[in-house]
Fold:
Amino acid sequence: MLNLWYKNAVIYCVDVDAFLDTDGDGVGDFQGLADRLDHIEALGADCIWLLPFYPTPDRDNGYDITDYYGVDPRLGTLGNFVEFSNAARDRGLRVIVDLVVNHTSIDHPWFQASREGHPKYRDWYVWSKEKPEDADKGVIFPGVQESTWTFDRKRGEYYFHRFYKHQADLNIANPAVREEIQRIMGYWLQLGVSGFRIDAVPFIIEDLKKPGDGLTPYDYLTEMRQFLSWRRAEAIMLAEANVPMDQANDYFGDGDRLNLIFNFPLNQKLFLALARGDGRAVGDFLKGLPDIPLVGQWATFLRNHDEIDLGRLADDERQEVFAAFGPEKSMQLYDRGIRRRLAAMLGGDERRIAMAMSLMLSLPGTPVIWYGDEIGMGDNLDLPERQAVRTPMQWTPGKNGGFSSARPQDCVRLPIADGPFSYAHVHAMGQHVDPASLFATTQRLIRARRSCPEIGWGQPQVVSGTPASVVALLYEWRGGRVLTLHNLADSPVEIDCSHVVGDDAVRPMLQAGIDIDRASNHSRIRLAAYGYEWLRLEPAD
Ligand code: NOJ
Structure:
């Protein structure tokens, strides 16, 4: 039996080391996460995505793994992981984990054995006797990473690394490596996870483009999916695949490859639209969204643990977003992105932050929320690269925002202690009990989203004839009709919806400050500056 729970889910992403520290060592841990499941449950999310939590030298926030079958001792033990996942399941929360198999840390025993020419591991990585001519091309972290090939003295050859030089790419073309990847997946499935967020999917399959043992790149995704479904029917693969829309269906297959793909191009248009206060960049993009298999799904998001990658925008569009949200060089990263949190980019303006959250939740796909954005946390630009957006969760106005009893300088990353986004001002404890808080607003929005399977399952129609600043989407599915309206501009607008609403009764789902002109048959709706509303349309009595 197919279990398509992910079509109408809300995913909450957690970095365990930054969530809650219970043993006072300055590093968040699984016990802390288990203690704070209340927060996630109250928010209304029903699936937790854990960033990598495996043993690691931690030179890329855990995306540099030295053991796929363990837990970073700073975060707890495997026993603590199981306790946490059990507690999550008791509350009806699913857990998915990051599967980082494009590369390992160079400290991984497999790489150490490979560089020594160990017969079993010799071909587990991508080696070359000569430095390839294109070694300086395709670096992912320009400014920090110089090349994609580095010389290894012990082996006397160059190894390939798509990312940092301490992350050697596994040789996916080697069947023994693929078998090991299955073993890793099977292991975590057996421990109760509901699937994987798969890191760097286009780079995982690129090795298979070379003539090899007959497996083609996308066939490998089918192979992975088959294994996954055999082991656990409800399990999903959520892919980090920043690919153009016309390639997406290669990754979805006929519904037999990836379940979900992060819609990176949409995310970029979303920030362009927010920067302009003009919704057309989003509306136009949605009109060109390709059809995908019924069992496939987009994953939508505002921010994540990385920089906002604006690489798919035209140069002048990217400059517009930089000017609006990351004007200083220190806010930009890798010549393509912005390393800031949502609330900070939107100047802490709660109307605008809530509207952005609402807009994201109304887009086609399954929403993914980066921890802390639900309370409007800020960033710390003094931290290097993407660490800026990974500061400890702010629970209380007390020491370290209630994250840890350690000295601030001993915390995994420095808690934000100064300025308008400091834990004195922005903390979950205060927001939990304040019905006007961003947390409470996000809660209401998530409740609305989960009550609209039309969005998870249907295709949006971009409503025409609305003011340029507005994104108006109509979803119809199994007889249900939902209209979502967002005003991206700093001034009120009036929207004529008569051609969509017809004779239907209009039931506002959020009451977020709209003004419906009843005299004109509910079809003229006024939205405040940065106003928004979701309307259920039902046949009039
Ligand atoms: C994508 C992850 O999101 C990012 O944080 C990481 O640095 C790279 N993959 C390499 O694993």
